[in-house]
Amino acid sequence: MEPLRQEKTKSTPEINFDKSQEIFEIKGWSKPENTLEFYEPVLSWLTEYSAQPNPNTVFNFNLDYFNSSTSKIILNIIRVLEAIPQNGQKLEINWYYNDEDNLEAGEAYKSLTEVPFNCIKTSGN
Q1: Distance of CA 14 to the CA centre of its chain
Q2: pTM of this prediction exceeds 0.85
């Protein structure tokens, strides 16, 4: 499976997914002009990965800002990730935040899933 990498821009986050690693990350600002178009390859890659995941997967959301359409995509990503821990595989989601609004968003996502979900305070990026 080929890695999926996107460099960050002013309106899109850095994407770093590599199956040879156990850490996957979305980092930066997410306010793409066409959210569905930007995140379609992300969801496709994760769907393929979740069919044959590594024994351990750590998924990091490290978003300083995201718009409402990205919020819906984040929930879709979490739903895809929930398929990973089926046959002894482990999944951990880390939600990095640097302000109360972002913490509240992370807590809301955490309440919607049964997988291990950590909210971790940062000093910013």
Answers
A1: 11
A2: yes
